[in-house]
Amino acid sequence: MDMNLEIEKVKVENKAVLKNLMELYKYDFSEFDPEDVNEHGLYEYMYLDHYFTEENRFPFFIKVDGKYAGFALIREVEESNRTYYSMSEFFVMKKYRKSGVGKRAAFRLFCKFHGEWEVAEIEENIPAQAFWRKIISAYTNNEYREIKKESWDGPIQVFHSRGSI
Prior knowledge:
The chain is of the alpha+beta class. It is built from four helices and seven strands. The protein has helices at about 15-30, 50-55, 100-110, 125-140, and strands at about 5-10, 55-65, 65-80, 80-90, 115-120, 145-150, 150-160.
């Protein structure tokens, strides 16, 4: 199945679309996260607005054949005299999973932001850990390391992005 994959920066006028996709993501994630919906029946991602007001945050849609298939939220983090990119949130809708969309999208995003990366998963999310270890291993030819931080409950893959693929 040959699919046209696009990575599209989210424009502020499309913030509502990202907000809607975020609800699907948060619902999907609810099996690992104790958070409940609010009085309006929504999860509401508390950092959404920051992606349109802070210059070190980068929101992207993942599209397949012109249709929304997911999103990625990337942050540039300055911490302890170093700067790295963080995959804050990454979502591919179920219909597009296991088709290579996630892998292709991740590779393109890694290539878009050259430098050091950290991709973290929560301890309970075993499927995400398996996905990211497989993707990052393929992307880096197994040239990554896994670390733990006191500030995070789960594994973190650390690697450098390379040029275009």
